[in-house]
Amino acid sequence: MISFLVAYGSKEGQTEKIAERIVAVLDGRGHEATAVSVADVPTDLSVEDFDAVLVGSSIHMGKHGTKVHRFVREHREALETRPNAFFQVSLSSAFPSKESDAHVAEYIEEFVEKTGWEPDRIGAFGGALRYSKYGFFTRMIMKRITQETIGETDTSQDYEYTDWDEVEAFATDFAALVEAGDVAVDGDVAAGGEPEETSV
């Protein structure tokens, strides 16, 4: 049995849901997986206690969360000495196009550059529009952005764009690589495409 840590930063909840689905896939393969929010890391948690680590981050207004950056910088050495993966959640990944794919790649490259961490595997997944969780100004900004792109402007409801098959495939692929002891250190982008403006 392999122990996996899934550390994530989630603003409105979608990245947390994805982290939990990854945990379910890993548990289903007979491993022990633990999901932890980087906003509330237990004081007794040690990355070194896990055999493999995944880190997930949402994109919100074009940025990764500062607490995800901090977590990676603080634990980079531990990440780099065991199999590791990074997954990003954004609206750009939900609607692939030349422009959105460029956003996805740009945000990943910026994250790698700022943290100095080059993950063994990278996944990028569609996020969600959580109008019910946004404050007034964020709701209006997101309504304007989506009006020009995906058209989901009814702020009385939320919209989920995550491809759960892609999430499960990513978790399964990473688990298989860890099980085989065959994790390449090349930062390849896995199922799910690449990272946009905001997600959860």
From TrEMBL:
**Lineage, uppermost ranks:** Archaea, Methanobacteriati, Methanobacteriota, Stenosarchaea group, Halobacteria
Protein name, per record? Protoporphyrinogen oxidase
| PANTHER family the UniProt entry points to | PROTOPORPHYRINOGEN IX DEHYDROGENASE [MENAQUINONE] (PTHR38030), PROTOPORPHYRINOGEN IX DEHYDROGENASE [QUINONE] (PTHR38030:SF2)
Q: Which Pfam families match?
A: Flavodoxin_5
Question: What InterPro entries has UniProt attached to this entry?
Answer: Flavodoxin/NO_synth, Flavodoxin_dom, Flavoprotein-like_sf, Protoporphyrinogen_IX_DH
SUPFAM superfamilies given for it?
Flavoproteins (SSF52218)
The Flavodoxin-like domain sits at 4-169
One of the entry's Gene Ontology molecular-function terms is: FMN binding
For this protein, the record's Gene3D superfamilies field holds: 3.40.50.360
According to its UniProt entry, the protein's GO biological process terms are: heme biosynthetic process
